[in-house]
Each structure stands twice: as structure tokens, then as C-alpha cells.
Amino acid sequence: MSKTIEDNGWTAVSRSLEKLLSNRKNPESKATPLRVEDMPLPSSPVVDAIMKHARDRLPKQIFSHSMRVYYYGTFMHHRDITQCCALYEATATDIMTYTGQAIAMQHFPEWRYSPETYLLASLLHDIGTTDANMSSTQLSFEFQGGIQALNLLTQNGAPQSTAESVCETIIRHQDVGDTGNITTLTAVIHFATLLDNVGANPELVHKDTIESVVKTWPREGWTGCFAATVRKETKLKPWSHTTKIEDFAEKVEANETMHPYD
Known about the structure:
This is Cyanamide hydratase. InterPro entries: Cyanamide_hydratase_HD. This protein is an all-alpha fold. The protein has helices spanning 3-7, 17-22, 45-57, 60-75, 81-88, 92-99, 115-124, 131-135, 141-155, 160-171, 184-198, 207-216, 222-236, 248-253, and strands spanning 12-14, 181-183. The chain has a two-stranded antiparallel ribbon with strand order 1-2. α4 packs across α11 and α7 (115-124) crosses α10. The termini are far apart.
């Protein structure tokens, strides 16, 4: 498999998160407490342009959610730099060049992807939920968002493989289920969005890490905000992909993991 394919998360894994968790190489792996300030964000002309676009266009609550999704997904897969080097038979410089930080896979050590691509997907995954975007199309918000992200990334010079990976991830970021496959990038965003939105699998991220993330990127009533978004999407578009998740708004409102931080 080429480095470009790996960098952009184009590796097939099970769509079933339960299967992914049960088939881990180390099912007993424990989350390590980490702090946001210890994990600098990737930076590149494309990332910087998309970061500005997201800050300018997304409501504050959606932008903060997007950043939490990035950090939760990243922290789920953080490993000490020396362990990374041993795992991939690389120098510390090689690992930092590949990932931008000391990131491998704490829970899924065989997965590899670029945090830059994951940051782009995190920043844009809910772009279709803004009032302007939701009302501008009959498409489900993930599909509209994926198409918009593909065009935006291409216009800002992202490689085709990167732009298409982000598009695929956004389109399928609510495509949870038990059959078939998804990409590693989509799997990571599934774990991260489900943690932030419904409190699923909280053991994958240390409680101290969650507190560091919400301190930096506060929820500010995200539970109610997102539940309202789900209801708005399904009311405006009763055919929407969001209806695939039964009682989704109620599941969001029952998020006990994040309740203390709302």
C-alpha cells in the first residue's frame, strides 16, 4: 500500500465498531491522560485555509464540537514517541514528519493516517448542518457537506486523495452499522463523534483528557444544540440519512458521559 493511501486513511476496516473493539490486538489497552496543550495542531497552507474557513463559517458550537472530535480521535490513538519508533522502526524525526505529533494507535496500533487529513475531516464534517447549507439543498447534510468539502479542498490545493478521503469520511460519518467496511479515517471519526454526541465508549479516552478538551473547547450546551439540529434535519428532510439512526435526538439528549460538561 502506498504512503499516500495510508496517509489519507484509505484502509478498509469493519463498519462495526463493536467488532473493531473486540478484535483489537490489545483489548485491555488503557487510555492515557493527555492535555490539549501537549498536542499541537498540524499546519499547512491547506489546513490553515480550511481552519480559517471553518472559523468564519461555522457557528461557535459546531466549530468547538469539530475541534473536540479532532482531539478525541487523536487522543484515542496517541502513543508515546519511543513506542512509535519501535513499532514502525523509524526515528523520532520520521514519526513526527509522518504524523505531525507522536501519534500512532493506542487502541488500534495497525492503523495509520495523517492527522492533517483527520483534522480537515473533523473541521468540515458538520459543515452541512449550518442553517444556510441545510436549507440550500434537498440532500442529506452529510452528502451536501461532503460535496462542499471536496470542492473546497480542491480549490485550496489539497491533493485528490486527501480531498476524496475527507469527502468519503464526511458522507459516511453517520453511517454506523454492523455490516460492510469503512475507511480507518471514517472509523476514527465514528468513535470520536459518537463519544461527543452520545457518550459512547468513554473508556477510549481518559477522563482527564476529556476535561482538558472541554476546557479548551467548551460544549456550551452542545447536547441540546445537536439534538435540535437532528430534529431540524429530519423535519425538513424526512428522507434524510439521519433518520437511519432510530431515536437519534433522544440518544443525544441521554448523553450521560458529557452531561457534567454541558
